[in-house]
Amino acid sequence: MNKYIERIYNGIWKENPIFVQMLGLCPTLAVTTSAINGLGMGLSTTAVLVAANILIAALRKIIPDGVRLPAEIVVVASFVTIVDMLMEGFVPSLYSSLGLYIPLIVVNCIILGRAEAYAMKNGPILSAFDGIGMGLGFTIALVLIGSFREILGAGTIFGVTVTPASYQPISIFILAPGAFFVLAGLTALQNKLKAPSATNGSAKKKGKKSACSGDCLSCAGHVEESKEEK
């Protein structure tokens, strides 16, 4: 597989930040009251992620190790400010719906994690594709969660009614507990299908350390063995 396509595939499927790595759950649970909110937050995060990855990768040999993290935060914050202003100017209704969560993209662990783990070690083009893959994976996850919540909680998707007139919306799904119910349901389905997940041990089976394998007892045992060896 082409290495650029592989980065996109990994972000969407094998290393999906929500369903596999379980990162960025705060905005995921907070803003996905509707599919359009999930799409807006996902695309905003993707834009920041791609731009930040490119710039950080381009400056990786210039940034001193001692100020690496502060420099990454400054880069990310600059792009978040641009996205925040553009959204306020061109899509004010979506901007109002997302509210404080747009500025909070600065501290999204997905963005800082990719900057530190990938962009600081690879070139700008490859880092851009990594950002696209992770951003699309994040966006797809948010749209899926938002769609389920909107359909069950309001009987609509992207504002269009899709349920029969006799359907009684389950309002809890557009409230805070609904986010946990839907995420739990999708994660259970993922585990049932044995898709890559941080909660079904697939990372351990493949010998990967990119996510928790779900086997805490083995992790604890490994730590104890390491201490004894020392």
List keywords for this structure.
230 residues, mainly alpha, 66% helix
Write up what this structure looks like.
It is a single chain. With 230 residues, the protein is mainly α. The protein has two domains: 189 residues, no CATH class; 31 residues, no CATH class. 66% of the residues lie in helices and 2% in strands. The protein contains ten helices and two strands. Strand 1 and strand 2 form a beta hairpin. The relative contact order is 0.16.
Main sheet summary = 2 strands, antiparallel
Report the portion of residues in β strands: under 5%
Tally of individual helices: 10
Radius of gyration: 19 Å
Helix content: 55-70%
How would you describe the shape? globular
Write the layout of secondary structure elements.
Blueprint: H1 3-14, H2 25-31, H3 35-59, H4 68-90, H5 92-98, H6 109-119, H7 124-154, E1 156-157, E2 160-161, H8 176-192, H9 202-205, H10 216-229
Antiparallel strand pairs: 1-2
Helix pairs in contact: 1-7, 3-4, 3-6, 3-7, 4-5, 4-6, 6-7, 7-8
In short:
The chain is mainly α and 230 residues long. The protein contains ten helices and two strands, in the order H-H-H-H-H-H-H-E-E-H-H-H.
